[in-house]
């Protein structure tokens, strides 16, 4: 049993929101507490007036509306009478027992949940103290009711059994199919209610998977100068479409200043990093291209937003975990999960025929490799078979790429972690690998075919062995050649004179 308490300025907006659900058959008014009539006999005006009358008595309070949602475990299906009893006892426990309230059960998600609309303004015009109400009153109240009525305890649930309107129940909007304002409002309210996010960038990364974005306007625009914000629909390719919806016109008024207050409270908790780190690392270790990387993460409930500039160059990456309802920048999960680190581990597009062919070639060579002759023997065997090795570096260390001598370097296949670890453990650095690759042309000029090379195999093996020996002797472990070291020492001595 999990309760979320949201405070706002408008009673009418909260009542209208729930009544719209009722009109669509997606909710039912179960109970009206401290009203003169039964819930079934109340008109909309009577429902609103009882709460609005108290709110108008407020002496100083700004947020006069209190809107509470209470969700239950997916396996629980509680009867209406028990929901009414739980609502009354819960409200008493949080010191709202003497306040009128409307209780609605909602049916629009897979998880049973109810909404309570009330006001914190008492009949003397004073406000009920709601500071730290979640920790001080709400959590103890839900734990007491779980124990009393034998409900499944929220504390003991796994992260993927989140009690609330889950992201799985939240669908991306399709522009033009339904009224845009209502669809955007639905997405924005749900995301604010459910997800943890610590910046506008993170908030937008969550919204984008539902085809919505919070738009501040162009740099130096009037809207941005005045801290304005509109919500807009976007196409699947990220392009804006249709008119923007003012943040002030959405229930709860999720304007920029409101969101900034949420950023401080909603920063993702560090304990959620472990799950997302493990999944990303496991997928990368499979040797996938960008398309398959995004698909595998999506299958695990993780949405990936790659930030690109106008030229299409990626400059950042954000991961949204729709099971823990958290969002992280790649580098906040692990330094090597920056956009540069991620792309350095992704393979070229397997749908390109040359890439697919080269992958099979490399895997065939690797599978037939005898590692007994040692690192130099292994490298000589690979080179004589026509497989070249090049290398780069990322935050985790060297990245080795392999490809047929006639394949373009951009189609090279990245060697998996097992082979990479073998090469590193046996002294092959990125500098040594690239030294060999650069000097291969002197031994294997383009005018010789692979067949011609086989005819001179004895001679070529000697030359290849000499080249490999030279790489390990000339290039130091720190990637600096002995010639460069000598030159640097000369310059240093010269400066001292």
Summarize the structure in words:
By secondary structure, the chain is α+β, with helices and mostly antiparallel strands. Helix content is 43%, strand content 18%. The protein has helices at residues 11-23, 44-55, 80-93, 133-149, 180-194, 200-208, 222-225, 256-265, 273-284, 290-299, 330-333, 339-345, 353-367, 375-384, 417-425, 430-443, 450-455, 457-474, 482-496; strands spanning 2-8, 27-33, 65-71, 101-106, 113-119, 212-215, 230-234, 240-246, 302-308, 314-321, 326-329, 387-394, 397-404, 413-414. The strands form four sheets. It has a five-stranded antiparallel β-sheet with strand order 1-3-5-4-2, sandwiched between helices. A three-stranded antiparallel β-sheet has the order 6-7-8. The termini are far apart.
Q: Using DSSP, what is the number of strands?
A: 14
User: How many structural domains are formed by the residues?
Assistant: 4
CATH architecture label name of the largest domain: 2-Layer Sandwich
| Oligomerization category of the chains in this entry | single chain
| Strand arrangement, major sheet | 1-3-5-4-2
The whole-angstrom Rg is 31 Å
Largest sheet: 5 strands, antiparallel
Report the CATH topology name of the largest domain: BirA Bifunctional Protein, domain 2
Q: What number is the mean pLDDT?
A: 85
Number of helices: 19
Question: Which percent band covers the strand fraction?
Answer: 15-25%
Distance between the termini: 79 Å
Low-confidence stretches: 158-168, 479-485
């Amino acid at each position: 049993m999990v309760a979320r308490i949201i405070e706002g300025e408008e009673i009418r907006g909260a009542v209208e929101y729930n009544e719209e659900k009722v009109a669509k058959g997606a909710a039912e008014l179960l109970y009206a507490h401290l009203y003169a009539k039964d819930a079934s006999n109340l008109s909309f005006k009577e429902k609103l007036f009882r709460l609005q009358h108290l709110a108008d008595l407020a002496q100083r309070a700004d947020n006069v509306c209190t809107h509470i949602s209470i969700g239950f475990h997916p396996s629980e299906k509680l009867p209406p009478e028990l929901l009414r009893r739980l609502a009354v006892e819960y409200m008493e426990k949080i010191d709202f027992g003497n306040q009128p309230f409307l209780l609605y059960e909602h049916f629009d998600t897979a998880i049973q949940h109810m909404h309570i609309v009330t006001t914190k303004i008492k009949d003397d015009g004073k406000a009920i103290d709601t500071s730290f109400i979640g920790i001080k009153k709400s959590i103890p109240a839900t734990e007491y009711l779980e124990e009393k009525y034998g409900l499944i305890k929220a504390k003991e649930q796994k992260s993927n059994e989140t009690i609330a309107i889950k992201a799985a129940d939240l669908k991306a909007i399709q522009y033009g199919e339904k009224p845009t304002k209502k669809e955007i409002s639905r997405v924005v309210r749900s995301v604010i209610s459910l997800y943890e996010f610590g910046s506008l960038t993170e908030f937008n990364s969550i919204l984008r998977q539902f085809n919505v974005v919070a738009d501040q306007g162009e740099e130096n625009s009037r809207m941005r100068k005045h801290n304005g914000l509109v919500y807009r629909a976007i196409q699947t390719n990220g392009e804006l479409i249709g008119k923007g919806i003012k943040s002030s016109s959405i229930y709860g008024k999720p304007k920029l200043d409101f969101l900034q207050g949420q950023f401080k409270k909603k920063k993702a908790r560090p304990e959620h990093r472990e799950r997302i780190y493990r999944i990303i690392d496991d997928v990368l270790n499979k040797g996938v291209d960008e398309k398959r990387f995004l698909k595998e993460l999506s299958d695990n409930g993780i949405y990936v937003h790659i930030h690109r500039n106008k030229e299409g160059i990626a400059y950042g990456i954000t991961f949204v975990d729709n099971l823990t309802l958290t969002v992280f920048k790649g580098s906040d999960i692990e330094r090597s999960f920056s956009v540069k680190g991620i792309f350095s581990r992704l393979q070229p597009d397997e749908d390109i025929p040359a890439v697919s062919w080269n992958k099979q070639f490399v895997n065939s060579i690797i599978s037939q490799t005898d590692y007994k002759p040692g690192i130099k023997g292994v490298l000589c065997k690979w080179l004589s078979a026509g497989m070249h090795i090049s290398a780069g570096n990322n935050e985790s260390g060297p990245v080795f790429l392999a490809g047929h001598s006639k394949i373009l370097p951009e189609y090279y296949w990245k060697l998996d972690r097992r082979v990479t670890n073998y090469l590193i453990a046996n002294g092959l650095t990125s500098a040594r690998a690239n030294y060999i690759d650069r000097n291969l042309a002197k031994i294997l000029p383009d005018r010789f075919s692979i067949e011609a090379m086989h005819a001179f195999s004895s001679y070529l093996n000697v030359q290849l062995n000499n080249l490999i020996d030279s790489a390990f002797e000339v290039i130091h472990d720190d990637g600096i050649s002995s010639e460069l070291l000598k030159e640097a020492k000369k310059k240093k001595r010269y400066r001292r004179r």
